[in-house]
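Lab notebook, design round three. We kept the backbone fixed and only want residue identities now. Task for the bench partner: fill in a sequence for the structure below.
Input structure tokens:
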């Protein structure tokens, strides 16, 4: 089974891209989908039971959508201090969970208070949805897909 995690805060405009994309999927055969504001320890235990994981999140960096492999990396703190790499490191340390992981990062331009997606981010949603669907339909997603 795959695990898809949409990360973001819908009350911070483009930060809601991850949850928006994952919720738009609806039920997916062979996948468990979660929408979260931030990565938390309780969700890390789920990594023991999945074949692979995809994080879907908005990013401040770049102008293009990226889908890249993510590896565990040491970090400090929890919650807002965790990115997918430090979250994976926690899952390895606490649960010996090591599924292959990817990050679908969608650039946003407006992270202010509000509940709207900027026109720039909205224009990227169809391509992001396509990449998300492609990852789900592939038995294993290649690096840089």
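Proposed sequence:
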């Amino acid at each position: 089974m795959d695990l898809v995690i949409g990360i973001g805060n819908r009350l911070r405009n483009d930060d809601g891209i991850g949850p928006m994309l994952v919720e738009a999927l609806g039920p997916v055969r062979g996948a468990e989908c979660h929408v979260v504001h931030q990565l938390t320890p309780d969700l890390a235990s789920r990594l023991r039971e999945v074949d692979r994981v995809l994080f879907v999140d908005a990013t401040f960096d770049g102008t293009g959508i990226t889908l890249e492999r993510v590896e565990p990396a040491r970090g400090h703190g929890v919650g807002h201090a965790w990115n997918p790499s430090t979250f994976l490191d926690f899952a390895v340390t606490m649960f010996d969970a090591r599924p292959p992981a990817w990050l679908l990062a969608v650039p946003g331009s407006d992270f202010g208070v509000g509940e709207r997606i900027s026109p720039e981010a909205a224009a990227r949603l169809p391509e992001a949805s396509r990449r998300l669907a492609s990852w789900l339909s592939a038995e294993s997603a290649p690096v840089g897909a």
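Keep this in mind before ordering anything: The chain has one domain: 2-137.
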